Amino acid sequence: MKWTSIIAIYGLFWVMAAFVVLPFGVRTHDELGTEKVNGQADSAPGNFSPRKIVIRATILSALMFGFFYVNYFRGWITVADLDLTTYFGH
Questions:
Q1: For the chain, percent of residues with pLDDT exceeding 90
Q2: Which pLDDT does position 84 carry in this prediction?
Q3: Cα 39 to chain center, whole Å?
Q4: SS3 labels along 1-64
């Protein structure tokens, strides 16, 4: 596997992981008991922390990419395993 492919695939895993971890730990102003700014949406986060999201996404994406990379060389799950026509008889 080329290093450019590794960077591109890891980037895809990172973006996916960022969207997965985004809602965890975020609370609204009402849940925190803090004042809202005039015009603010009721669902706006009151404790948004981008640093935590980046750290969590980096850890999760490293784990996901690690499994992908090992599977790439070991061949635990191949394209033939994902062929559903063999199971549903086409």
A1: 70
A2: 80
A3: 31
A4: CCHHHHHHHHHHHHHHHHHHHCCCCCCEHHHHCCCCCCCCCCCCECCCCHHHHHHHHHHHHHHH
